[in-house]
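Continuing the batch. This is chain 6 of the set; chains 1 through 5 are on the previous pages. Same settings as before, nothing changed between runs. Recording input and output for traceability.
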Amino acid sequence: MTTRHTLTLNDTVYETTLTRKYAHRKPFVPKDPKRLTAVIPGLILDLLVKPGDQVRCGQGLLVLEAMKMQNHIAAHDAGTIQALHVAPGDTVTKGQLLVEFQ
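Output for chain 6:
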């Protein structure tokens, strides 16, 4: 099922149809730079930092094993580790909170 919509962009009016799936999609939510979440499910093999540590951009934070591959997860920005929400041996799901920064 499709629905007709009118969009105005730069003073130009457009008629378009949107599918039901598109009309009911989840809204975009920007990522919080103070939270690092798992992009894939896997097993935490090793933590390379602890709370209170200063990290630089690109520094390794933890090792996540997924499909028998070791993924070294790095800091996306410089900062201080506020909390670790995982421990070695934990199984994580996609989107699960791993590390919080101050």
